[in-house]
């Protein structure tokens, strides 16, 4: 039987593709993977558990067929705030008019509508801003009662049933996980997903609550889409395993001119901590209906790559668009081209964080420097929980990184980590055995040939998390 061809990406920045009606068959899923998707996202704002179970089954079947670990991100919906309904289905609000939001469930009209969220009424103050329908309409609170908010319409327009409500300048006393989210979370964890996307995080307490429920069964990827989260950024990142710059809602609640700066700040903070960071939303939005992106969208992807993001994400482009394969393919091409540019390499080197003040951090920094000095063909990191691979990736090394782990769960989690080519392999018990295995894997995976050098990094004793303390240089025989 002929050996299975090895699949090796020609880039370091990873791609996340969202699954949906446009990508719900094994054939399309395989096309997206071969085009460059490293992680597949399941959006629990849409679809049933049966839909998601079928997609997870397809992903695992593709993983078995290709021999490559594939990550799965379960993105839970979070608390969605919406107005109620209108007698005629929609109304038009005039700029300057008065409009009431209240707890009365009666269908609304041009003067009032139900707001079935008493926590908003309780938390709002005079002068608070409410954004409706993704920010298309803007209201300002001018009077507050126990059961209603009287507002002035600052920016008017058409408003229809159940449109979303954003409150950018108020911390709402609501949990990040609703009853629906908890049911979705349990389903996702029982189906071996690798990351949980935690929506509308405002405080570190939101992450702590999810962390207690998940209990290590998946990495927590916090989605930063609230201004309040930026105010608590360091505390939130300290508890999270990974982070997503969710520019959709963030772009509604922040002034648009602030979003690029927020993106750079979040990416920089995550890189400093060595935690994977994803840039998401509207990256190639025009490809939902067009076979090619705009030049501005291509530049947007390139900017995220220059910022040093671990991954970039496609949403509607692959979930509901007409050209899902083309969207992944062009994103792969853009990333690969940027990473061939000397300016990109210079940017990565100049923006490298100071090594962590620990033995593990020092070993990772030395690994990168030694590999660069000798022109190593690969850095092979033995990692049980993923920590060693994350430390190496934080250094943004010139050499490719092979993450060797005995756990398929760890290999799948590394699918989102910058530059890491994960391989599942039986555990080793000594540094001598580790070096011999590293040589074999580097050859078998097509990274190094006879006479070339690799750098091996590991934690001794083997099989324990949190130890990165050994480094060897080896010539491939």
What's the SSE blueprint?
Blueprint: E1 14-19, H1 26-35, E2 39-43, H2 49-66, E3 71-75, E4 90-93, E5 98-102, E6 112-114, H3 118-123, E7 129-132, E8 137-145, E9 148-155, E10 157-160, E11 165-166, H4 179-190, E12 195-198, H5 204-214, E13 219-224, H6 227-231, H7 233-239, E14 242-246, H8 247-253, H9 259-273, E15 277-280, H10 295-307, E16 311-314, H11 316-319, H12 324-339, H13 342-350, H14 359-374, E17 378-382, H15 387-394, E18 401-405, H16 408-413, E19 420-424, H17 431-444, E20 453-458, E21 470-475
Parallel strand pairs: 1-2, 1-16, 2-3, 3-12, 5-6, 12-13, 13-14, 14-15, 15-16, 17-18, 17-20, 18-19
Antiparallel strand pairs: 4-10, 5-9, 7-8, 7-11, 8-9, 20-21
Helix pairs in contact: 1-12, 5-7, 7-9, 10-12
Descriptive account of the structure:
There is one protein chain. The protein has about 475 residues and is an alpha/beta fold. It has three domains: about 15-80 and about 175-345, Phosphoenolpyruvate-binding domains (TIM Barrel), CATH 3.20.20; about 90-165, M1 Pyruvate Kinase, Domain 3, CATH 2.40.33.10; about 360-475, Pyruvate Kinase, Chain: A, domain 1, CATH 3.40.1380.20. It contains 17 helices and 21 strands. The protein has helices spanning about 25-35, 50-65, 120-125, 180-190, 205-215, 225-230, 235-240, 245-255, 260-275, 295-305, 315-320, 325-340, 340-350, 360-375, 385-395, 410-415, 430-445, and strands at about 15-20, 40-45, 70-75, 90-95, 100, 110-115, 130, 135-145, 150-155, 155-160, 165, 195-200, 220-225, 240-245, 275-280, 310-315, 380, 400-405, 420-425, 455-460, 470-475. The protein has an eight-stranded parallel barrel, surrounded by seven helices. A six-stranded mixed β-sheet has the order 6-5-9-8-7-11, with helices on one face. The model has no long low-confidence stretch (mean pLDDT about 95).
């Amino acid at each position: 039987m002929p050996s299975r061809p090895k699949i090796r990406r020609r880039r370091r920045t990873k791609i996340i593709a969202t699954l949906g009606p446009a990508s719900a068959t094994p054939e399309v899923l395989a096309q997206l993977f071969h085009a460059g998707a490293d992680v597949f996202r399941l959006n629990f704002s849409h679809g049933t558990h049966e839909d998601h179970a079928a997609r997870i089954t397809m992903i695992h079947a593709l993983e078995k067929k290709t021999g490559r670990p594939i990550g799965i991100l379960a993105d839970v919906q979070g608390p969605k705030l919406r107005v109620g309904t209108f007698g005629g289905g929609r109304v038009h609000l005039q700029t300057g008019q008065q409009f009431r939001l209240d707890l009365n469930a009666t269908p609304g009209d041009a003067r009032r509508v139900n707001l079935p969220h008493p926590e908003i009424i309780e938390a709002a103050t005079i002068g608070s801003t409410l954004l409706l329908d993704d920010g298309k309409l803007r209201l300002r609170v001018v009077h507050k009662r126990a059961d209603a908010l009287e507002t002035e319409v600052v920016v008017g327009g058409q408003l229809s049933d159940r449109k979303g409500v954003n409150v950018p300048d108020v911390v709402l006393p609501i949990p990040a996980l609703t009853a629906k989210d908890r049911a979705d979370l349990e389903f996702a964890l029982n189906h071996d997903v690798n990351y949980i996307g935690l929506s509308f995080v405002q405080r570190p307490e939101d992450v702590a609550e999810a962390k207690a429920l998940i209990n290590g069964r998946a990495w927590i990827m916090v989605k930063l889409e609230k201004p309040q989260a930026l105010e608590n950024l360091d505390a939130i990142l300290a508890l999270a395993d990974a982070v997503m710059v969710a520019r959709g809602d963030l772009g509604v609640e922040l002034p648009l001119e602030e979003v690029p700066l927020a993106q750079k700040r979040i990416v920089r903070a995550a890189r400093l901590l060595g935690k994977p960071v994803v840039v998401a939303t509207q990256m190639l939005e025009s490809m939902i209906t067009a076979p090619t992106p705009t030049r501005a969208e291509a530049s947007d992807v390139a900017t995220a790559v220059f910022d040093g993001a671990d991954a970039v994400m496609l949403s509607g482009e692959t979930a509901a668009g007409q050209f899902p394969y083309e969207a992944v393919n062009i994103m792969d091409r853009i990333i690969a081209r940027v990473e061939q540019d000397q300016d990109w390499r210079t940017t990565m080197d100049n923006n490298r964080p100071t090594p962590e003040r620990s033995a593990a951090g020092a070993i990772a920094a030395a690994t990168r420097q030694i590999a660069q000095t000798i022109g190593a063909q690969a850095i092979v990191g033995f990692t049980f929980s993923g920590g060693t691979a994350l430390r190496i990736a934080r250094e943004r090394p010139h050499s490719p990184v092979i993450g060797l782990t005995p756990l398929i769960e760890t290999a799948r989690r590394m699918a989102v980590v910058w530059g890491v080519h994960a391989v599942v392999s039986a555990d080793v018990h000594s540094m001598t055995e580790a070096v011999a295995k590293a040589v074999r894997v580097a050859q078998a995976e097509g990274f190094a040939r006879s006479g070339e050098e690799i750098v091996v990094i590991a934690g001794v004793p083997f099989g324990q998390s949190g130890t990165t303390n050994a480094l060897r240089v080896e010539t491939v025989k």
